[in-house]
From TrEMBL:
Keyword flag Transferase: yes
Record protein name field: xyloglucan:xyloglucosyl transferase
Glycosylation sites: 110
All residue ranges annotated as the GH16 domain in the record: 22-216
The family this protein is said to belong to: Belongs to the glycosyl hydrolase 16 family. XTH group 1 subfamily.
Alphabetized UniProt keyword annotations: Disulfide bond, Glycosidase, Hydrolase, Signal, Transferase
Listed GO MF terms: hydrolase activity, hydrolyzing O-glycosyl compounds; xyloglucan:xyloglucosyl transferase activity
Gene3D superfamilies according to UniProt: 2.60.120.200
InterPro entries: Beta-glucanase-like, Beta-glucanase/XTH, Beta_glucanase, ConA-like_dom_sf, GH16_AS, XTH
Organism taxonomic ancestry: Eukaryota, Viridiplantae, Streptophyta, Embryophyta, Tracheophyta
One BP term from GO: plant-type secondary cell wall biogenesis
Annotated catalysed reactions: breaks a beta-(1->4) bond in the backbone of a xyloglucan and transfers the xyloglucanyl segment on to O-4 of the non-reducing terminal glucose residue of an acceptor, which can be a xyloglucan or an oligosaccharide of xyloglucan
Length: 233
């Protein structure tokens, strides 16, 4: 092989590899649309970060452009600090229409010094009632942490910083429905739910502290995207 040819080949390979790296890192500009909140949702850091805010008039939210049937969905979040009572920050998957399927991570705010509650749930054909709640082993407002949903035909796993906190196995053979036939989009939002969110609804949102802001970073979707009946990876 001539040295000219082999150096051209090396250059080509390195270009291809960098394209591959770019394609695998998520980007909010490429992967999501901000769908509500009239300017309260903002993409930052060239697409690496996204801030959602909530004030008395409105919260805000975004959703993935694609829908997916199974995959691994990673999101880093830094939650509303200090008194976040009444606020709910979400990261979930959902199909659309009647009898929808849904896989939820919801972060229920609390007064300063009291722990956030992580609320998880799984809906199949419109039926939920599979809530499980957790308290975290760190302060989720001090730094970004990674929250992950792994969804395949056998099980759903909820992970926090790569540690599984909940496994929901497919027990269809025992008559328990499992979401596996409807494609889902990724949804994230920050909204006011002070009717029920904090200490059973007893503590209301303190609007003097608004706007409240939650930060998302490094969305990473490794899923099977479904678009008008076509499958592509
Ligand atoms: C808030 O703090 C209280 C008291 O520590 C705790 O019982 C509750 O689970 C926390 N989370 C929410 C969302 O109320």
């Amino acid at each position: 092989m001539s040295s000219k040819f082999s150096s051209t080949l090396l250059l080509l390979i390195s270009i291809l590899m960098s394209i591959q790296l770019l394609a695998s890192a998520g980007n909010f500009y490429r992967d999501v649309d901000i769908t509500w909140g009239e300017g309260r949702g903002k993409i930052q850091e060239g697409g690496r970060g996204l801030a959602l805010s909530l004030d008395k008039l409105s919260g805000s939210g975004f959703q993935s452009k694609n829908e997916y049937l199974f995959g691994r969905f990673d999101m880093q979040l830094k939650l509303v600090p200090k008194n976040s009572a009444g606020t709910v920050t979400t990261f979930f998957l959902s199909s659309q229409g009647e009898g929808h399927d849904e896989i939820d991570f919801e972060f229920l705010g609390n007064v300063s010094g009291q722990p956030y509650t992580i609320h998880t749930n799984v809906y199949t054909q419109g039926k939920g009632n599979k809530e499980q709640q957790f308290h975290l082993w760190f302060d989720p407002t001090a730094a970004f942490h990674t929250y992950t949903i792994v969804w395949n035909p056998h099980r759903i796993v909820f992970l926090v910083d790569n540690s599984p906190i909940r496994v929901f196995n497919n027990h269809e053979s025992m008559g328990i429905p499992f979401p596996k036939s409807q494609a889902m989009k990724v949804y994230c939002s920050l909204w006011n739910a002070d009717e029920w969110a904090t200490q059973g609804g007893r503590v209301k949102t303190d609007w003097a502290l608004a706007p409240f802001t939650a930060y998302y970073r490094n969305i990473n979707i490794d899923g099977c995207a479904v678009s008008s009946g076509n499958l592509f990876m």
